[in-house]
Each structure stands twice: as structure tokens, then as C-alpha cells.
Amino acid sequence: MPTVPYKNEIPKKYNPQNTSTAVLKKTFAIRLKEFKRLWKEISQSDMASPEQHYIIQGVRGAGKTTLLTRLCIEVEESDALSAWLIPIQLKEEEYGISSLFSFWLRIAEDLEEHHLYGANFKGLAEAIEDIEPEDGEDAKEAFKALNNALNQHQQKIIIFIDNITELFDHFSKVDLAILREVLSQNANLRIIGGSAVSLENFYDHKHPFYQFFNVITLGKLTKDETLDLLLALGEAAGEDAAQQIKLAIEQQPEKIESIRRLTGGVPRTMALLFDILAEGPHGTTFGYLDDTLDMASPIYKHRMDDLSKQQKPIVHAIAKHWDAISVKEIAQKTRIDSKTISAQLSQLQKQWIVEKIPTDNKNHLYRIQERFFNIWYLMRYGRRRDKNKLLWLTRFIEMWCTQEDLTHRVTQYSSGLSNDAYLPGTLAYTSALLGCKNISVNEKEQIYLHARAFFEKQNDVSYLSLLPEIESDEYASEAYAYIEKKEFKQAIECLEKAASRDDFSAYYLIGAIYQSKLGDLKLAEENFLKAVKHNVIEAYKELGDLYTNELEDFLKAEQSYLNAIEHGDNRAYRYLGYLYSYKLKDFFKAEQAYLKAIEYGDNRAYSSFAAMYLLCDLNDKKHHAIDYAKQGVSNGENHGGLYILVCVALWSNELNIAIEAMEKLFHSDTWMKELEENTNDMLALFLLFLAKKQTHLVDKWLKRFDLTEQFKPIYYALMFLMKDEYPNEYLRMGSELEETVTEMLARIDELAKKYQ
User: Fold this and answer.
1) How do the residues of the chain divide into helix, strand and coil, expressed in percent and rounded to 5?
2) Is the pLDDT of residue 203 over 60?
3) Nearest Cα residue to 479 out of 469, 470, 471, 489
4) Phi/psi at 217 (nearest 5 deg)?
5) Is 96 helix (H, G, I), strand (E, B) or coil?
6) How far apart, in whole angstroms, are the C-alpha atoms of residue 131 and residue 110?
7) Alpha carbon 711 to chain centroid distance?
8) DSSP assignment of 377-407, as one string?
9) Which of 339, 514, 537, 599 has its CA at 20 to 30 Å from residue 302's CA atom?
10) What percentage of residues in the chain have a pLDDT greater than 90?
11) What is the DSSP letter of 609?
12) b vs e for 108-132, b when ≥16 Cβ sit within 10 Å of the residue's Cβ?
């Protein structure tokens, strides 16, 4: 995207009436279809009789003012029309017009100031001002004076009125009835208006202007119109910017469509975002944005005030979220039931407040229809340090900028700061960059340090308190990325920064890295202790594991597990059972621990319980072992549970149960993955079956599941045991396998004696 500011063009995008004629004509790239339609209506009419009047409706920033201004210029420059048709364009905000009388007075003042025909109407405004005030009659007399002047000089007027509905809101019912009569019966004037609000009143049969105006709606820009607008923006920004936009259109058309959707297809919002991005941290564009938001505030505030009690929190939730949101999410944020929300959303769609984003199921998404209204809401009602306040700008930067462009913006950031910067704009642009997911933490640190140094030099230090710091979860995310790349030192650095921002769970992760990845048990212990000091509950259990398995301090291990249980981590009962059974040989305490684990819903404790009886050779507990192993499988059929069940069943001489469990292992959906991850487990099971003299079973499984190559030592051990049936197969074994096979045969004999 362009990096060269084009400040001279910025205000013109928000105030098209103040744009020079040459510039407006040159940059008029969209709404051409509507322009041609209306120009045809105007140019082909001689207004010999009352004409059709029009209202152009569309959200703020849709291009209504620009279209009205362009039509006004075309009338003024037309040799065929300008001799008898005088165009008058009222400003977007006409605070002096509060009645039909003041409306006619304002028209008279404009006619007196006309650069060609002003002399024809000299004294008209003064004559109207001298009319005696009288309810309704003064407006009639004012128009009579205006109409007589037009007839006298054989001229007519076409009035372009922006925000026409807001203007009419100031008129009394009598004024509106008189105006309708004039527009219906008089051929000397024609109105083309613009409106940023839904024209519900014009469809109400009780309203004076019911079905009176022909309405043209400016919808979202089409894909082609979006391309035309972007090219126009690029040309205004300079040659480099234009080239960049052309490349984006050619190489990443899907990105253009994403921008269209993000902005709701509204030209002004699109132009605003590109202006801010082009200018960078200097922030002048935000000054114009603030002015525009201020101008829009009365209308938008009125829009919010008109909402019902139930609609206000719904709109608030949607606006604060910026991205499209589901009914379920709205319900969570507002605590209003889903049925009520759905009913209100239907109404809000009719009011042009909310639009529905259809999905491939019934759970549709909803967002604020007018994206500029959403920007206004976030900027005016977002808390000062609210991350979502600038979500609209962050989303645009993430969507439009390539990784290379983002890196360039980071490196150029400090050079864009200057003492004449618009500080609120600098803060906003900086905050948006700091919120981007595509900018690394290291790059954000650069931005933050430059911004902090810049704001420290300014007279107003309040900006320092509003500068958002990099949050702990970003450091944590960066740490996970480093862990994926096995860059553990860098991961620890990020986690330490997260911990310094009060994310004390980072100590737990640092401890885990030192324990399992770097093998530094002392530092692992130190960080687990820091974590438990700050009430990171899960760290107690990890500390217990460290003391049990690596440091072999069993008293500390026991205390760590008990601390975990005291703090509500009932997982620790199962690990405490392991400690008591295999390390401390206290089988009574082990049984109590496993029973507690089961009581608290730890289904894996069933298999652990059964395994204790097996591995600790508690032969008098075989019937308990088989029961617990079965329950372990029935409460969650997984590799670990089935493995224990096979072992316990063979130990207990329950051959049928063992075979059934083994078949389930082979036929599980994750069989191949489990085999790859647990090869030694499968090897142990084959040895146990061979110890139970189940040679034909093992032979069948090896062949059926094509495991001969993977388990070649087992295969040759099996062939030795079956040499009466396969007398020559054992002889094929390579010499390199002889020692391994001999060891396996010895192990089979050992198991046969142990589990006979």
C-alpha cells in the first residue's frame, strides 16, 4: 500500500462539496450508473410541467453527497440547461433552516449570490424577510415571492439537498403539506435529495410525502466498483501507490474482496482506511476522522436513542465485537435469551442497523450494517484502553498488508513520528499496529519503545498512560511458536516477559521446558515453585512428578500431590497412587488414593489400579485387577486401557478376555498411529501371548496385519518356537538378529514361569 501521504486530498473525501470541480470530476469513479440515470432525467426535461422528485438513500459515506455535487456541476456546466435552470446545492448540515419559511429564504439567498444570475434576484431575500410571521401563511407568501421572481426571468431551479429527511424533521406538518402541494403543482423547481436514514416515513400512508419521491438506493459497492475506487485512491496517492494497488488487484483479487466485505462496501470507509495506512503514525487523517465523527454524532446518537430497551444492549454487543457475531455469543454478552435476540435482530435488520451474514447452517452471523456507524460507536463508546476500540483499523491492516509491507512499516515507524503529528491519530495508529496478529512480538517491542520515547517528549503525558502495552498472551503465543521450532531459550525469554506482566502460569511452562526439553532439573524446580507461590494450581502436580521421577525426593513429591489436592486438583490422587505403589510400596495408601481418584471421576485410575496389582505381583488381587481393567476400558476405550486389560487378563489366565481386547486394539481407528507411538507396548503383548503358548495367534496377527518386517526379531523367535511346522524359516534369520532373538526367547521363558 502507499506510504506517501496525500494530505491535500484527505479532507475532500469527507467534504465533497468543498472539492474543486476539476478534482471531483477527475476522481468521480463510482456510482456512474446512478449518475447517468439521474442526468438523463434532468437533461431530457424542459420542466414544462411538475417533474418527478428523487431521493438518493444510502448509509453515510456511500457517495450521496459526491453524486449530488457531481450532478450540480453537470447542470452548471451544461450550455443547454444553464441558461434557464439554476442548480442550488445546500450544505450537508443546514442549521439555519428550521421551517419551510427559512428554507425558501435560504434558496433566495443562494439565488442572490449566484455568479451569473444574482442580479436577477437582488432584494428577494430581504423581501421575504419582511413578510409578517403567520402560521403557514408566511411560508406560502415566501414561495409566492420566489416563484414570481423565477417567472419574471423565465428561470427554474433544481435543488440538491443532502440529509433531506433530517431537514424535513424540522418542518411542521403544515409546512410539509404546503411543500408537497408546491412540488406537486409547480414546474419551477425540482428536488433531488440524499438521505442516510431509512425512509420509513415515506412509506407510511399517513405521511404527507407517502410514495411521493422516487427513491434510488446506493447499496454496497460491487466488486468492479471497488476496483475502480481503489485505482482512483492509488492515482490520488501517487505513482508508487497506484502501482501497488494494481499489483494487488492482479495478484491477490481475493484480498480486494475481503476489503470490500470488511468496509461493508462503503466508499468513505474504504478511503478512510487507506488514508490512515498511507499516512502512518503522523495521524492527520485521524483529525479529519474525529471531525467527521463529531458531525455524525447527532444522527448516530439519535439512532441509538430510538432503539428499544432490549435492542440497545444487542447493538452494543455487536458493535463492540466489530466482526460478525452469532446469536449465542450475543446472548452470552447480553444475558438476553436467544429467542428474544433473534426477534430483535429481525427488527434491527428492517431498521438498517444490523445485517445478517448467512452461513451454511441455521447459526447465522450478524454485524452492524453501516461500518462507519460501527467505527463511530467504537471510537465514542469504547473504553480508553479497550483493545476493541481500534479493532476496525487492526483488521484492515492485517487484511491488506503483506508480511513484507508490515516489516517495512515497523522499520519506518520512527521516521514517521514528528512534533507536528496529530497525537490522538499517532496513538490510534500505534495501538492498531500493536494489535496486529501478523506483527511479531519483537517488532511490537520496537514500535512500543519508539512510541513511548516520542510521547515522553510531548507536553501532554496522558498519551503515555493510554499507550497499550504488549500483553502477556502475545508473549505466550510467541513462546509456543519457538517451542514448535525447538528454540527453547527464546521461548523461555518470551515466557519470562509474560510472567513479568502477571501471567504467572508462564512459570509453569518454563519449568516444563527445563524439565522435559533442557534437562535442567534445578531450574525446573525453581520455576514450578514460583508458579505455586503465585497459586498456579497445576504446577503442584508437575512439581510432584518432578520429585517422583527425576529428583526422587518422595516426601516432597507426596507433599506436592497433597497440596494439589488441597487446592482442588483431584488429578493428583492418581499420581499419588503411583507414588505410594511403585516408590513407597505402601499399597494400602495406594489403594485409597486410586479409589479417591475414581470417586472424583478420573476414569484412567481404573487401569492404573489394575496395573498396580499386576506390576507389584499382588497375586491375591487378580480378580480385583481384572474388574478394574474392564471398567477402565468400559469408561473410555483407548490404547492404554486395552493394553492393561490384555496384560492383566493374561496374568489372570483369562485368555478369551485377552484375545478380545487385543482384537480391539488391532481394529481401533487409530491403530496405525498407536502402533507407531507404542511399538514397545505391542512387543510386550506379543511376548506375553507367546509365554502363554499362543504361537498360532501371534502368527495370525503378524501375517494379517503385515507386521512381520516391523517385528522381525519376534517373528524369528516365533518361527523358532514353531520349528516343527516351519522347519526352515528360522534358518533365514540374519546373524545380526541372533543375540536379540535369543534374549527374547529367554524373556518368553521367564514370563511363562512368572505368569503360569
Assistant:
1) 70, 5, 30
2) no
3) 489
4) -100, 130
5) coil
6) 18
7) 50
8) HHHHHS-TT-GGGGHHHHHHHHHH--HHHHH
9) 339
10) 58
11) H
12) bbbbbebeeeeebbeebbebbeebe
- Inter-residue contact 123 to 51 (CB < 8 Å): no
Say how many C-beta atoms besides its own lie within 10 A of residue 458's C-beta: 14
Phi first, then psi: give them for residue 423, nearest 5 degrees: -60, -45
Contact yes or no for 2/244 (Cβ under 8 A): yes
> Are the C-beta atoms of 569 and 537 separated by less than 8 Å?
yes
At residue 495, what are phi and psi to the nearest 5 degrees? -70, -35
Is residue 38 within 8 Å of residue 71, measured between CB atoms?
A: yes
pTM of the entire structure?
A: 0.62
Q: Is the pLDDT of residue 508 over 60?
A: yes
Q: Return d(Cα 533, Cα 514) in angstroms, integer.
A: 18
pLDDT of residue 4: 32
Amino acid letter at 527? Answer: N
d(Cα 1, Cα 245) in Å, to the nearest integer?
7
Q: Are 269 and 263 in contact (CB under 8 A)?
A: yes
Q: Quick one: pLDDT at residue 9? A: 39
Buried b (16+ CB within 10 A) or exposed e, 622-658: beebbebbbbbbebeebbbbbbbbbbbbbbbebeebb
Matching residue, cell 501371534: 698
Most confident option among 75-79, 89-93, 245-249, 671-675 = 75-79
Q: Name, in order, each residue with C-beta under 8 angstroms of 614's C-beta and a sequence gap of 6 or more.
A: 625, 644, 647, 648, 651
Beta-bridged to residue 117, according to DSSP, are none
Stretch among 123-132, 255-264, 544-553 having the lowest mean pLDDT: 255-264
Residues belonging to the chain: 756
**What's the pLDDT band for 366 if we cut at 50, 70, 90?**
very high
Angstrom distances, CA of residue 595 to CA of 541, 577, 622: 18, 9, 17
Helix (H) or strand (E) holding 57: strand 54-57
Sequence-distant (≥ 6) Cβ neighbours of residue 392 within 8 angstroms: 322, 371, 374, 375, 378
C-alpha cell at 702: 503378524
Pick the CATH number of 31-217 from 3.40.140.10, 3.40.50.300, 3.60.10.10, 2.30.110.10: 3.40.50.300
**Interval 743-754 mean pLDDT:** 93
Residues contacting residue 132 through CB under 8 Å, at least 6 positions apart? 138
Q: What average pLDDT does the segment 222-238 reach? A: 80
**DSSP assignments along 564-585, one per residue:** HHHTT-TTHHHHHHHIIIIIS-
- Is the alpha carbon torsion for 220, 224, 227, 231 positive or negative? negative
Return the closest-CA partner of residue 463 out of 438, 418, 427, 496: 427
- Which amino acid does the sequence have at 34? E
Q: What is the pLDDT of residues 101-140, one digit of tens each?
A: 999 999 999 999 998 999 999 999 999 999 988 776 899 9
Please report the pLDDT score of residue 15 as a whole number: 62
* pLDDT for the residue numbered 206: 66
Q: Residue 5 — very low, low, confident or very high, per pLDDT cuts 50/70/90? A: very low
User: What residue type is assigned to position 47 of the chain?
Assistant: M
d(C-alpha 683, C-alpha 701), whole Å: 12
Determine the average pLDDT of the residues in 518-535: 96
DSSP 459: S
| Helix 223-237 × helix 267-279 angle, to 10° | 30
Question: pLDDT at residue 336 above 90?
Answer: yes
Q: What is the pLDDT of residue 237?
A: 67
Domain extents in the chain:
31-217, 224-450, 603-672, 678-756
**How far is the C-alpha of 675 from the C-alpha of 40, rounded, in Å?**
77
What digits encode the pLDDT tens for the residues 14-60?
A: 567 667 788 788 778 889 999 999 999 999 999 999 999 999 988 87
